[in-house]
């Protein structure tokens, strides 16, 4: 009798503990503060692991400038995912916001002020206004017609910069008069020779440009998390799941889709402005359709509908483009390698790279779930 009663206790004990740990991790992982806190930690450690850590950095072969660039494209992917992953709208014209903000920030730096903060603010404001106009027209149609309209607007922006507005944009040579000034008016943060001394409390970060980009990355993640946990985020997901049903319950679907489009354009504007601060140059290709295609690939590769996935996709894409392609034997084939990675990930794991992590996690948590169900039966 004692054996019969004590045996289930022995089996359920660890299962219950595992279940409690899993539920605690779930609550921790979905908390706004914990997501922002983990983002701060990841942003702080990333350049050290990527560039300076013993052994690991040697395997990665990363460099400081690429670490900043990954965060910048990560912001772009994060905002694009807000539209594609959470609202279900596929845009092929986001290069207009990325490149438009880049040109706006670059021209602003040459004509008004080179303050990086003001450049980002002005570029983002330009992208928001542009997204409002293009979204107002494009969202009159849905599905493939919406996607084609955004692609058409993006290409129109490219050809405007290439020829009719070349007096302002410098045409096919790109805008080269970018003049990035001191951060906050006194810190020569973006000089090639400025780096954070190892004696400071933040030597892991590498240089002040990364600190600037990393701080804005954390703010963007916090903003996206707040949006997704707000009623707006819930409505975005409802529209993605069933637009007609959302309309039937009285929601103004078009207005919410327009808001998602503008918010997504705003994040693209932040990233495009940072891209100019990072490179002090605006290539006309930043408005070309391939830029829109790249952000689609990055987002899908990482995993749409997740916070982390698109940023991972951006990191992997840039890593292959900038590090793997540096090998003379691989350089002619890096596009092919990237294509094979994309096909393999999407064919085997449609949820993207982050979906692989999710499946591994489900594999480890499955025994405890089965044990709980067995106990209930």
UniProtKB/TrEMBL annotation:
Pfam families assigned to the protein according to its UniProt record, in alphabetical order: BPD_transp_2
UniProt KW keywords: Cell membrane, Membrane, Transmembrane, Transmembrane helix
Location of this chain's protein in the cell: Cell membrane
Alphabetized InterPro entries for the sequence: ABC_transp_permease (IPR001851), LivM-like (IPR043428)
A cellular component term, taken from the record's GO annotations: plasma membrane
KW Membrane (keyword) present: yes
GO molecular function list: branched-chain amino acid transmembrane transporter activity
Membrane topology, from the record: Multi-pass membrane protein
Main location, first listed in the record: membrane
Domain of life (superkingdom): Archaea
Transmembrane domains' residue ranges: 35-51, 63-83, 95-112, 118-137, 144-161, 208-235, 256-275, 295-320, 332-357
Protein's name in the database: ABC-type branched-chain amino acid transport system, permease protein II
UniProt source species: Haladaptatus paucihalophilus DX253
Source lineage: Archaea, Methanobacteriati, Methanobacteriota, Stenosarchaea group, Halobacteria
């Amino acid at each position: 009798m004692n054996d019969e009663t004590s045996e289930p206790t022995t089996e359920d004990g660890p299962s219950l503990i595992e279940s409690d740990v899993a539920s605690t991790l779930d609550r921790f992982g979905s908390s706004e503060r914990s997501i922002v806190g983990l983002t701060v930690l990841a942003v702080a450690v990333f350049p050290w692991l990527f560039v300076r850590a013993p052994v690991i950095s040697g395997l990665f072969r990363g460099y400081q400038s690429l670490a900043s660039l990954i965060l910048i494209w990560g912001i772009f992917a994060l905002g694009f995912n807000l539209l594609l992953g959470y609202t279900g709208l596929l845009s092929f014209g986001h290069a207009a916001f990325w490149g438009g903000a880049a040109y706006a920030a670059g021209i602003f730096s040459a004509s008004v002020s080179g303050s990086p903060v003001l450049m980002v603010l002005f570029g983002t404001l330009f992208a928001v206004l542009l997204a409002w106009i293009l979204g107002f027209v494009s969202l009159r149609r849905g599905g493939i017609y919406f996607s084609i309209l955004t692609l058409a607007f993006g290409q129109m922006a490219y050809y405007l910069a290439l020829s009719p507005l070349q007096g302002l944009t410098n045409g096919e040579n790109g805008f080269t008069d970018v003049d990035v000034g001191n951060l906050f008016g006194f810190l020569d943060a973006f000089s090639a020779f400025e780096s954070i001394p190892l004696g400071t409390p933040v030597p892991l970060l590498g240089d002040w440009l990364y600190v600037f980009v990393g701080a804005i990355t954390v703010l963007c993640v916090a903003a996206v998390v707040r949006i997704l946990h707000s009623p707006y985020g819930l409505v975005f997901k409802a529209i993605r799941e069933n637009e007609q049903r959302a309309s039937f319950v009285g929601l103004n679907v078009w207005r919410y889709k327009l808001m998602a489009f503008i918010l997504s354009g705003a994040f693209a504007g932040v990233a495009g402005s940072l891209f100019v601060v990072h490179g002090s140059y605006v290539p006309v290709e930043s408005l070309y359709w391939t830029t829109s295609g790249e952000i689609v690939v990055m987002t899908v590769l990482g995993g749409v509908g997740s916070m982390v996935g698109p940023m991972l996709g951006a990191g992997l894409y840039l890593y292959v483009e900038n590090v793997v392609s540096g090998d003379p034997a691989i350089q002619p084939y890096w596009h092919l390698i990237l294509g094979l990675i994309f096909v393999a990930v999407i064919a085997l794991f449609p949820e993207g790279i982050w979906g692989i992590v999710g499946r591994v996690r489900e594999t480890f948590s499955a025994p405890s779930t089965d044990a709980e169900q067995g106990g209930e039966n």
